[in-house]
Amino acid sequence: MHIDSERCVRAVRSKDARFDGWFFTAVLTTRIYCRPSCPVVPPKPANMTFYPSAAACQQAGFRACKRCRPDTSPGSPEWNQRADLVARAMRLIGDGVVDREGVPGLATRLGYSTRQIERQLLAELGAGPLALARAQRAQTARLLIETTSLPMAEIAFAAGFSSIRTFNDTVREVFALSPSELRGRLPKKTVVSPGALTLRLPFRAPLNPDNLFGHLAATAVPGVEEWRDGAYRRTLRLPYGHGIVALTPAADHIGCRLSLSDLRDLPVAISRCRRMLDLDADPVAIDDQLRADPLLAPLVDKAPGRRVPRTVDEAEFAVRAVLGQQVSTAAARTHAARLVTAHGEAVTDPEGGLTHLFPAPEALAAVAPESLAMPRTRRTTFTTLVRQLAEGGLHLGVESDWEETRARLLSLPGFGPWTADVIAMRALGDPDAFLPTDLGIRRAAEELGLPSTPAALTARAAAWRPWRAYAVQYLWATDSHPINFLPV
């Protein structure tokens, strides 16, 4: 979008928050970059130039605006609605792969050379993978400076910097303030916690929390997830350790309280929580397209801004999808809870009832098949899946190619279109995944006057592309028991 200067200027003049994260405005006279909704008086168009990423602004010598704080914008919707190389690379960078494995590790995961990845990222985002990761480190550093009482040396290494000098130089360059000056700007009444981190996760309005948090709470596995005091809480398996997160819906943000065993996991934990809640979606664009169908329009108008509830762990979700085949939600939770108690990794939760991490594929692959209380065919499906995940024959991650992974899942015994597509929708993040065989979807379609047979409904849904996963959320919302029967 940043190459359409006229459109960008209109967005800046109208201070349209819907475009925050889509592009950044750099002001040539002040050498400052802002989000489109910055509250200051817009500069003259001749003094504006536009960049597709904060990293590109920083590479060009601009510093972040102290008023609108563009580093806290929602992420671009582009990276969660596409499956090409750039989008997959951006999802991996957000998941901290460059900080942990370097650019060669990023290239290995994507199956391309480092030169190809750098060339494509530079062409589309104006910055290479190292610059993009550096911008993320700067954002993490600011968050830790402003929300904790940690010494600066600890913050530097927790944010992913290799040295305190690099940390200091980067913070000064990006924010035009030293780390100590950033902390000194906090209001005197601000209280920083020595334990859990409390932050706000921004999103593009509107956001309807009913289906999002309702679905997560309804399917919560005891010990791993819970709904407590108006918040969805769960344990997190992270690269350097584990964590516990509490997510609370509010009018203009999601409250996020994080307890981490290793602070280096902070950016990854935030990225995974945002992905689970689908906070980087563009609900206006999605709802406008779905509203064009006259039979869907009343559903969209009644409760706009529905998101697709996703996951913080793709392998975990795939296992739970198999456990839920052809049984009730309650039975699926019971099966999962037994596995958690027997094979999950114990954690301590002083604030609630969370007790375990969901078992890793390696732990589940060691389970004796005869100990699984499920039909023989589903037992075979389960053991094949966890063995493939544990041995690396099947990889489910943010970098997965949606179509290739769907085909790989369908080749496994016991995997039908419903299971493959619900994993594509909720684990892989495919915004166009569709479930025409789902009982709740067919029942809702019939009530609305839409075709109810899978083939006819799929044909009708072609007009909803590429947002059919969101149409599923609207259709599920019309049924009083949308998740009590899960087909194969």
UniProtKB/TrEMBL annotation:
Pfam families referenced in this protein's UniProt entry, alphabetically: Ada_Zn_binding, AlkA_N, HTH_18
**Listed cofactors:** Zn(2+)
Write down the superkingdom of origin: Bacteria
Offer one example of a GO biological process linked to this entry: DNA alkylation repair
The job of this chain, per UniProt, is described as: Is involved in the adaptive response to alkylation damage in DNA caused by alkylating agents. Repairs the Sp diastereomer of DNA methylphosphotriester lesions by a direct and irreversible transfer of the methyl group to one of its own cysteine residues. Also catalyzes the hydrolysis of the deoxyribose N-glycosidic bond to excise 3-methyladenine, 3-methylguanine, 7-methylguanine, O2-methylthymine, and O2-methylcytosine from the damaged DNA polymer formed by alkylation lesions. The methylation of Alka by methylphosphotriesters in DNA leads to its activation as a transcriptional regulator that activates the transcription of its own gene and other alkylation resistance genes.
Name the chain's protein: Probable bifunctional transcriptional activator/DNA repair enzyme AlkA
Q: Which PANTHER family match?
A: DNA-3-METHYLADENINE GLYCOSYLASE, DNA-3-METHYLADENINE GLYCOSYLASE 2
Q: Which GO terms describe its cellular component?
A: cytoplasm; protein-DNA complex
Domain (HTH araC/xylS-type): give its ranges: 87-185
Catalyzed reactions: Hydrolysis of alkylated DNA, releasing 3-methyladenine, 3-methylguanine, 7-methylguanine and 7-methyladenine; (2'-deoxyribonucleoside 5'-methylphosphotriester)-DNA + L-cysteinyl-[protein] = 2'-deoxyribonucleotide-DNA + S-methyl-L-cysteinyl-[protein] + H(+)
Record keyword Lipid biosynthesis present: no
Give a GO molecular function annotation for the protein. sequence-specific DNA binding
Give the E.C. number(s): 2.1.1.n11, 3.2.2.21
Q: Which UniProt keywords apply?
A: Activator, DNA damage, DNA repair, DNA-binding, Hydrolase, Metal-binding, Methyltransferase, Multifunctional enzyme, Transcription, Transcription regulation, Transferase, Zinc
Q: Which family does it belong to?
A: In the C-terminal section; belongs to the alkylbase DNA glycosidase AlkA family.
* TM spans (from-to): none
Q: Which organism is it from?
A: Streptomyces avermitilis (strain ATCC 31267 / DSM 46492 / JCM 5070 / NBRC 14893 / NCIMB 12804 / NRRL 8165 / MA-4680)
Keyword flag Kinase: no
Q: Which Gene3D superfamilies match?
A: DNA Methylphosphotriester Repair Domain, DNA-3-methyladenine glycosylase AlkA, N-terminal domain, Helix-hairpin-Helix base-excision DNA repair enzymes (C-terminal), Homeodomain-like, Hypothetical protein, domain 2
Q: Which PROSITE patterns match?
A: HTH_ARAC_FAMILY_1, HTH_ARAC_FAMILY_2
